[in-house]
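Hey Z.,

So I finally got round to the pyridoxal-5'-phosphate thing we talked about over coffee. Here's the setup:
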Amino acid sequence: MKAPRLEINLNKIEHNTKTLIDRLAINGISVTGITKSVLGSADIAEAFLNAGMTSLGDSRIENIENMRHAHLNATMSLIRSPMLSQVDRIVANVNTSFNTELDIISQLSKSSLKSGRIHGIVLMVELGDLREGILPKDLHEFVRKVLRMPAILIKGIGTNLACRNGVSPDNKNMSELSAIADYLESTFGIQLDIVSGGNSANLDWALGNKHPGRINNLRLGESLLLGCETLHRRPIDGLHTDVFTLVAEVIESKIKSSRPWGTIAQNAFGELPLAIDQGSVAQSILAIGRQDTDYLGLIAPKGIIIVDASSDHLIVRSKELLTIGTQIPFQVNYSALTLAMTSPFVEKKIVSHAQL
Ligand SMILES: *Cc1c(COP(=O)(O)O)cnc(C)c1O
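And the result:
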């Protein structure tokens, strides 16, 4: 079989998705499936939909266009602020985009007007993580101006925490978002259908909270795909954490010294390697590298230790020498997954539906 390859178990994705949709529904929260880490894979998006999802989101218009071409029956959200240079493509392919800048919303309005459409927006609110978001004190004026734009419909508000500074969702910031929704509705006489509380980092809060206030949506990617929450990367009860397996092939296997010799300077990545002398070791090279994945995010099978990687080579040690041609399976974290999905050298292989 081709290597390197990323094996993707769609049944496990479907199971994870259905489980979280059902658990969150009890507290009145819907799920938007986020596909950015899997390059807008239509197969994976379809697994989300088979589990009962009706709304998909991605940060990149190319991925959304890819899913549109597959004729998936779902509403699509662009969850990163639109680029001005992509406004027409976004209006043509996206139901709702997430926004924080009046200049961009104004162009979305012009483009929508030209093509006879209404474009939905969700306004992202800054609640402390300091990535995207309108400051709460500026929202009143912001909304007042948006309401004068003819082809724009404010569908809701949202926030994103824990992505940059690890700020955790809690009762305080979630109540603040609820209060903002109430304030905007009563002040402007509008209706906010979506109050999107956050991403996979919100699960502890949302699952443990029978009364989530106005929060009625989460945007989930990693938890559906890797089966964990993302504040502490704890596995979620009842979810599969082994949906993806990255398989790479052994191309060299030799007993070598663990200590390099010669005059030591920078390596290929500008790092100054510090080798610890452990005598002679069984060192193998696998044909996958930093161009294909984040080697620090790989979990090797028992008995194999990852020691290093260059662009095209993954260096491992084991007790016995690995046989040339052996294909070794690794588990992946979010970063390793995203890069593997993005590398054209990694074959994407959907594994059979037999295993549930
Ligand atoms: C990536 C992203 C998500 C999904 O995050 P996960 O941690 O994968 O659940 C949700 N919302 C926004 C705005 C994002 O950028």
